[in-house]
Design a protein that fits this description.
The chain is built from eleven helices and eleven strands. By secondary structure, it is α/β, with parallel strands linked by helices. An eleven-stranded mixed beta sheet has the order 3-2-4-11-10-9-8-7-1-5-6, sandwiched between helices.
Amino acid sequence: MQTADLYRWFASYEARRKSPCFEAWATGVAEDPEVLAMIDALPPRQRQPNLLFAAARFVGVEPGPFEEFRTAVVERWDEVSDITALRRTQTNEVGRCATLLPALATIPGPISLIEVGASAGLCLYPDRLAYRYGTGPILAPDTEDEPLLLDCDVDGPVPVPDALPEVVWRAGIDLNPLDVRDPDDVRWLETLVWPEQQHRLARLRAAVEIARADPPNLVAGDLVAALPQLVASASEGSTVVVFHSAVLNYVTPEVRSEFIALVDALGCRWLSNEGPGVIEFSTATLPPSPDPTTGLFTVALDGTPLAYADPHGSSLHWFDHRHGPPPDESGRQR
């Protein structure tokens, strides 16, 4: 995809109706030859809209009209480009736990949880959050403190669990893990939250506090090379679940295939949450998207697609069984 098309796609399918600021910035970039030429001089990994916009905000560019953004970015381009080289798009959206939980709760426990592309590991605590699906009751952990509540709109026969999964061990892999105890790493996470979405910012800060109380075990490494050792370290007698959200789109198709084969060879359960077309599913098991104007993620368990999900976890559109078999309930234990 050409850079201009990448930014048009981001404006139309990701930022539309969610961030007027980012929609305007991406649309403006797509039509600006000078800014496009500056972006095209960067390595491909650094051209992503989310990364560029976060880098600009990290160095002090304020949300506002495209003209103001353009002026500031051109003036501070060296600073912005340096940040894109140092940082990665590591949106640690804890709201995704709400769209993953119904599938995760079908897996026999106790569970050892491994996240690839874990960022700061904020999604490694699904058992310490509270959930409300639609107008249903709140599902919450037994704790004296008021837990972070995730609200999720639902459509279809979502198997809302009666209890939270028992997670006995958790770890993550990332090329560049972020430390919740490092102020700059936390500020980077906050910068990745889109300007108008203050509810996500508040949610992020609450999730950071959960992780600070019990910092996750995060390993710096490649998702293929680092996975076997973590699986071997998982709790004895547990079901090992490997999961990821918006990660496989950043690796080549060959690495995706290698990773999927490795998870199967290691005997793990595999929970995925990726954007359109990242994982190939049979058209017989994947119904039409309820909203083709947005880039809904597909939640799948062991390669079987189960639902469409909002990328930030605000909604879940569960498939009925006519679109594929229910999840495999045969537990794979370590």
